[in-house]
Amino acid sequence: MDKKTVTTICYLARLEIDKEKAQKIENDLEAIIELISELQNIDTSNVEPLYNPLEKTALKHNDVIDSDNQKEKFLDNAPSSNEDYFLVPRVME
């Protein structure tokens, strides 16, 4: 990672930086790239791939079509309604 690359990245990200920050960003990016390089060198050939970071899986429910229209039930429970709409107090004038 060199200063020109850092300057180009900052330009593309629309960031204005001074020389001190450019040096810090350069050092940080070098450390990140080094860490990624170390991670890529780890042998994971005997590791089972993860599909979920948690070992638990979500419960699945059957997708059942219900032909019961509950619109009237909901409108009857509302404090105030007009035909197919809920009536609410006016918030803005």
From TrEMBL:
Entry keyword Cytoplasm: no
Family matches, as Pfam families: GatC
BP-aspect Gene Ontology terms: glutaminyl-tRNAGln biosynthesis via transamidation; regulation of translational fidelity
Transmembrane segment boundaries: none
Keywords, comma-separated and alphabetical: Coiled coil
Alphabetical list of Gene3D superfamilies matching this protein: Glu-tRNAGln amidotransferase C subunit, N-terminal domain
InterPro entries, A to Z: Asp/Glu-ADT_sf_sub_c (IPR036113), GatC (IPR003837)
Sections of the chain in a coiled coil: 12-42
NCBIfam families per record: gatC (TIGR00135)
Protein name: Aspartyl/glutamyl-tRNA(Asn/Gln) amidotransferase subunit C
Protein species of origin: marine metagenome
Taxon lineage: unclassified sequences, metagenomes, ecological metagenomes
